[in-house]
């Protein structure tokens, strides 16, 4: 990541990772370049012939996209660690190596989440002092903002000291990339009282009290949508369950609206009239409007998206990666982790 500030930002896009690859990836790349034509250079990694065919369909004729051929694909059904180890010529592994070798500034993928994590950790590498990276996933809340779940599934067997790192990484991300001043952190628990919870949560609570972070104490599941805090801190097992449930809500609501519309002609007219307002109200709940989720703690920028991401979603993932690079995120995370470790050792 040695590109000078304000120069072109080089994005390595795993063009074969999503459910509709490489069509949506190519279209998303083109959309991103239309928004930041002088800022981005995108490397589409994957089957050269298929990517070239989609570029032709997208009628892109500029010089800001290049193709890096990769013959293999890591599928959603592959074992993450095994696939990264064995499929050396996969689009994901090749893209991760571009970041490792300073041929790209960020990795963007809508592929196998576990594999993206493994490739990022073992190929790009972790920031010194980071025991475990975290996925910080935004959930829209009542305050027209987002509550970030951390960890949202990078690991499922974390220890209390790992959660302190998650909080440090995510708070730095929100502060440096999105300008959230002194982000508030709440520990997800079965109640607000300090005495409640498992041994794991009680130990985490004690460690969080000793940090310089804006730790407000325990929170409950309802506080995520209420927007009580900026960061909901939890183990990746719990975080991933919460994330998947939250993501299913939009599909659930669409199904319920459709079912109601089918009950009568009047109901159909009512839903039809309400659709524009509903879409605007639920804009932030659409993952394609948000983009992806960052994997924080990597010695580089990694943005992970949904396999079903539409071109708009891919575009927003690319723009998200560019924003993180512009904020010098990796160096800011290094400083934050170093400061936290120094504070811990001196206390």
What does this protein look like?
This protein is an alpha/beta fold and about 350 residues long. The chain has a domain at about 1-130 and about 295-345: Isopropylmalate Dehydrogenase (3-Layer(aba) Sandwich), CATH 3.40.718. Helices cover about 50% and strands about 15% of the residues. It has 13 helices and 12 strands. It has helices at about 25-35, 50-55, 80-85, 90-100, 115-125, 160-180, 200-210, 220-225, 235-260, 265-280, 285-290, 310-325, 330-345; strands at about 10-15, 40-45, 65-70, 105-110, 135, 135-140, 145-150, 185-190, 215-220, 230-235, 295, 300-305. A 7-stranded mixed β-sheet has the order 3-2-1-4-12-11-5, sandwiched between helices. A 5-stranded mixed β-sheet has the order 6-7-10-8-9, with helices on both faces. Helix 1 (about 25-35) links the parallel strand 1 (about 10-15) and strand 2. Helix 1 crosses helix 12 (about 310-325), helix 6 (about 160-180) packs across helix 7 (about 200-210) and helix 9 (about 235-260) packs antiparallel against helix 10 (about 265-280). The protein is globular, with a radius of gyration of 21 Å. The two termini are about 35 Å apart. The model is unreliable at about 1-5 (pLDDT under 50).
Based on CA inertia axes, which overall geometry fits? globular
- The CATH C-level name of the domain at 1-130 and 297-347 is Alpha Beta
CATH H-level homologous superfamily name of the domain at 1-130 and 297-347: Isopropylmalate Dehydrogenase
Largest sheet: 7 strands, mixed
Average pLDDT number? 93
CATH fold descriptor of the domain at 1-130 and 297-347: Isopropylmalate Dehydrogenase
Computed over alpha carbons, the radius of gyration is 21 Å
Supply the helix-strand structural class. Answer: alpha/beta
Q: State the helicity in percent bands.
A: 40-55%
Assigned CATH architecture of the domain at 1-130 and 297-347: 3-Layer(aba) Sandwich
Q: Tell how many strands the DSSP assignment holds.
A: 12
The parts where pLDDT drops under 50 for at least 5 residues are 1-6
End-to-end Cα distance: 34 Å
Helix count, DSSP H or I runs of 4 or more residues? 13
Give the topology string: H per helix, E per strand: EHEHEHHEHEEEHEHEHEHHHEEHH
Beta content = 15-25%
Biggest sheet: strands side by side, in what order? 3-2-1-4-12-11-5
């Amino acid at each position: 990541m040695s590109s000078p500030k304000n120069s072109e930002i080089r994005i390595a896009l795993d063009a074969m990772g999503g459910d509709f690859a490489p069509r949506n990836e190519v279209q998303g790349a083109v959309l991103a370049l239309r928004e930041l034509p002088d800022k981005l250079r995108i490397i589409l990694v994957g089957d050269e012939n298929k990517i070239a065919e989609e570029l032709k369909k997208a009628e892109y004729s500029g010089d800001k996209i290049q193709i890096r051929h990769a013959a293999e694909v890591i599928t959603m059904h592959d074992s993450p660690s095994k696939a990264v180890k064995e499929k050396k010529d996969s689009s994901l592994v090749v893209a991760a190596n571009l970041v490792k070798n300073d041929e790209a500034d960020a990795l963007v993928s809508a592929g196998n989440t576990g594999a993206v994590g493994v490739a990022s950790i073992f190929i790009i590498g972790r920031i010194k002092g980071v025991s475990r990276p975290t996925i910080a996933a935004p959930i829209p809340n009542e305050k027209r903002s987002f509550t970030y779940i951390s960890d949202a599934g990078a690991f499922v067997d974390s220890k209390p000291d790992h959660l302190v790192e998650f909080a440090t990484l995510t708070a730095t991300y929100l502060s440096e990339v999105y300008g959230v001043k002194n982000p508030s952190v709440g520990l997800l628990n079965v109640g607000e009282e300090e005495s409640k919870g498992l041994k794991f949560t009680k130990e985490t609570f004690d460690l969080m009290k000793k940090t310089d972070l804006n730790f407000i104490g325990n929170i409950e599941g309802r506080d995520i949508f209420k927007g009580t805090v900026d960061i909901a801190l939890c183990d990746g097992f719990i975080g991933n369950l919460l994330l998947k449930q939250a993501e299913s809500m939009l599909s659930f609501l669409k199904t319920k609206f459709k079912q109601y519309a089918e009950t009568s002609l009047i109901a159909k007219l009512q839903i039809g009239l309400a659709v524009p307002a509903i879409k605007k109200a639920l804009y932030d709940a659409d993952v394609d409007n948000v983009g992806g989720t960052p994997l924080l703690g990597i010695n580089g920028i990694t943005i992970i998206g949904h396999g079903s991401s539409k071109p708009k979603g891919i575009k927003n993932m690319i723009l998200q990666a560019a924003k993180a690079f512009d904020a010098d995120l990796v160096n800011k995370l290094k400083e934050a982790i170093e400061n936290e470790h120094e504070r811990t050792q001196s206390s």
